Amino acid sequence: MQNNIDKLRPIENLIIDMDGVLYRGDEAIPGLKEFFAFLRGRPVDFILATNNSTRTARQYVDKLARMGVEVAPSEILTSAQATAIYLETLAPPGTKVYVIGEEGLEAAVRERGYIISRDGAEFVVVGMDRGFTYDKLKVATLLIRGGARFIGSNPDKTLPTEAGFIPGAGAMLAALEASTGVAPTIVGKPERTIFELALAKLGGSREDTAVIGDRLDTDILGGYNAGLTTILVLSGATTRQGVDSASIKPDLVFEDIQHLYKVWRQL
User: What is the 8-class DSSP label of residue 73?
Assistant: First the structure.
């Protein structure tokens, strides 16, 4: 696929994925610090919008700081935060919610005033959970079968780490869908909710905003559906062969963020 790098010229805002784009697990992608120095210097505003719901915004700030990059909590938007904001459109604070997920998702739900409970919950909210058990599956199954609404923070079946691909939130969602016959409502990428929230935070337009991601089925599809320029990096979940065979094509493809900023700075 031949890049038309002129598509970078109008870009003043970025919605940037993190896992597989900025790092794999605790391993920084080459050129990470230089990439952010380039963005700050140009300047290009950005929101780090991740489908990973396991961490809080502050924890992502701390993680990037350990890699030598300083960002503000306001520059981060997680699928956990987006899910809690979405809940506000459905039910008032004080409503009971059963959460399958880690600290990031639980904290986001609590911060919006919801009560996390397995008894009488009106919503079942599911993200990646490395403590996923049969008991959690059973409780959520009974609640959904009893009428609770089923919401997924994101559909990613896997998560790229330095050790390889591990099960993501989509694996937990699939187990629940199999046991209930109910498909979840997805809030994170590729759905529009998280992109609209990121655009609002940036104050940008669709014409001057691009998405950078490593997944065709979430980052690129979501950016395409939101009417944004789409930039794929091959440092995470997608191979060059995957791009060639995909039905949705990104506007631009780079090996990684180092390759991207080295090309961009020449414009």
Answer: G
CB-based contacts of 201, cutoff 8 Å, min separation 6: 47, 74, 77
> Does residue 19 have an active-site annotation?
yes
Distance, in Å, from the CA atom of 116 to the CA atom of 144, rounded to the nearest integer, reads 15
Whole-structure pTM value? 0.89
Closest alpha carbon to 67 in 10, 121, 29: 29
Across 33-174, the runs of DSSP E, i.e. the strands, are: 45-50, 76-78, 96-100, 115-116, 123-126, 149-152, 158-161, 164-167
pLDDT digits (tens, 9 = 90+) for 67-105: 999 999 999 999 999 999 999 999 999 999 999 999 999
User: Cis bond leading into 43, ω under 30°?
Assistant: yes
Full set of structural domains in the chain with CATH: 5-51+189-264 (3.40.50.1000), 81-186 (3.40.50.1000)
> Of 6, 17, 62, 156, which residue is the catalytic one?
17
Catalytic residue among 6, 19, 45, 62: 19
DSSP helix/strand/coil, 117: coil
Contacts of 80 (CB under 8 A, 6+ apart): 53, 54, 56, 101, 104, 105, 107, 108, 109, 127, 153
**Helix, strand and coil percent figures for the chain, each rounded to 5:** 40, 20, 40
Which residue in the block uniquely carries the two structure tokens 């790098």?
A: 5
Whole-Å CA distances, 62 to 21, 37, 48, 56: 17, 18, 14, 10
Contact present, 68 and 33 (Cβ < 8 Å):
yes
Token pair listed for 247: 């039905």
Q: Is position 17 annotated as part of the catalytic site? A: yes
pLDDT digits (tens, 9 = 90+) for 179-215: 999 999 999 999 998 999 999 999 989 999 999 999 9
